[in-house]
Write a structure and sequence with these properties.
- By secondary structure, the protein is of the alpha/beta class.
- It folds into two domains: 5-120, Conserved hypothetical protein from pyrococcus furiosus pfu- 392566-001, ParB domain (Alpha-Beta Complex); 126-293, Rossmann fold (3-Layer(aba) Sandwich).
- 39% of the residues lie in helices and 19% in strands.
- It has helices at residues 5-19, 30-35, 61-76, 102-110, 126-135, 146-150, 165-168, 179-188, 203-212, 232-245, 279-293; strands spanning 24-25, 38-40, 44-45, 86-92, 96-100, 115-120, 140-145, 192-196, 219-221, 248-252, 256-261, 267-271.
- Strands 1, 2, 3, 4, 5 and 6 form a six-stranded mixed sheet that branches.
- Helix 3 packs across helix 4.
- The model has no long low-confidence stretch (mean pLDDT 90).
Length: 294
């Protein structure tokens, strides 16, 4: 779609009006996610909850112009354009909702490209959380943040031994050293393990990643950073279900372990400190006190 910036903003506004309050995320399934690597630009829809679609913020036309120039250069050099795929999720009634890559999509659209590379993900929905609770086996759980705690953030951070090369092409995240041993202990001690991420991962991808390291996570809740309106009644319902299911929740982060008792709202705070022992060993020492003292 060529034309002025104003015309393009009007087009975005019309797309948002068309889908806001109507679209419903649906599971794409592993086969679709594996096979579909491109989609028509016309089948991709801007996310009404993204700043890109906000009248107060809107598209950054400088960024769009920079992408358009990059695509022109790549086309001139017979190179593939937009090598980094847009992250999308399948929606009903049709097409895909853009989660990440609005400006790349806008550049391709304005240059008249018919298709653009995509990566389809199945983010965790509220109904998935209900299913996790229904299928969980224990009455206590541990929660960890994938982005801040489980995955390595720095190149020099101590990490687990890498997976075999062919698996590293699929599972690109590196686990912090000691994470599999910690999860193995939690599995043996009959904790349900829930991991959370603001990232756009398919939940079953996260489950399979941990299985490659020989451990199990009960639930993977992904896309927590999405700006989306959440039904207040449903949110209260989920919180009540979690409270009823788990009288005890242990939250593990980089500096402390919080033990939370749902019924009394009591919280025990255990500081991990900066001792010479590895982080995972300090966490295990704290967890073993719960085993010894109840």
């Amino acid at each position: 779609m060529a034309g002025s910036n104003t015309a393009f903003e009007e087009f975005i506004a019309s797309e948002v009006k068309k889908y806001k309050g109507i679209y419903v995320p649906v599971k794409a399934g592993m086969l679709r996610r594996a096979l579909i690597r491109q989609a028509p630009c016309s089948s991709l829809h801007p996310n009404p909850d993204d700043e890109f679609c906000s009248p107060q913020v809107g598209p950054n036309h400088r960024i769009i112009a920079e992408y358009m120039e990059l695509y022109r250069q790549q086309r001139f050099n017979n190179q593939p354009y937009c090598e980094e795929p847009l992250t999308v999720e399948k929606i009903r009634p049709n097409g895909y909702l853009i989660l990440n890559g609005h400006h790349r999509w806008a550049a391709a659209l304005r240059m008249g490209y018919s298709k653009i590379p995509i990566e389809i993900v199945d983010l965790t929905q509220e109904t998935d959380i209900k299913t996790i609770l229904k299928n969980s086996r224990h009455d206590k759980r541990v929660t960890l943040d994938l982005d801040e705690v489980v995955f390595c953030q720095q190149a020099d951070e101590p990490a687990e031994q890498p997976l075999p090369f062919f698996l590293r092409k699929i599972y690109k995240q590196q686990l912090r050293r000691g994470i599999p041993a910690l999860l193995h202990y939690l599995n043996k001690q009959k904790y349900d393990v829930w991991v959370y991420s603001a990232g756009y991962y398919s939940a079953d991808y996260i489950q399979r990643l941990f299985r490659k390291y020989g451990v199990h996570v009960t639930g993977a809740v992904t896309g927590t950073g999405r700006k989306k309106a959440q039904n207040a009644e449903l949110k209260r319902e989920l919180e009540a279900l979690i409270t009823a299911k788990y009288p005890e929740t242990v939250h593990i982060d980089n500096k402390s372990v919080l033990r939370i008792f749902s019924q009394t709202k009591a919280v025990e705070d255990y500081t991990l400190g900066d001792g010479t022992e590895a982080w995972s060993m300090r966490v295990l020492d704290v967890m073993k006190t719960f085993e010894n003292h109840g």
